[in-house]
What does this fold into?
Amino acid sequence: KAQEFAAGKTMIKAEAKFPLMHITVGKISQKEEELIQNIRTLLEAVKPRNIGKATLASTMSPGIKLQLN
It folds into this structure.
């Protein structure tokens, strides 16, 4: 939830050879508003200028490219 992200409670996986992060922002069962708030909180913490591209995907679905501007 957004409160957990704000408190720094999340799991981030990074790739060893590439500047790539895998971050969980919620579960498919969460309300849309909660997921949106989690993504906004994440972007505020990471700073969009430090992100080249972002894709949102569930475990077994194709990704959706996000516009960061």
In short: The longest strand covers residues 12-14. The radius of gyration is 12 Å. The mean pLDDT is 78. The beta strands are 12-14, 21-23, 54-56, 64-66.
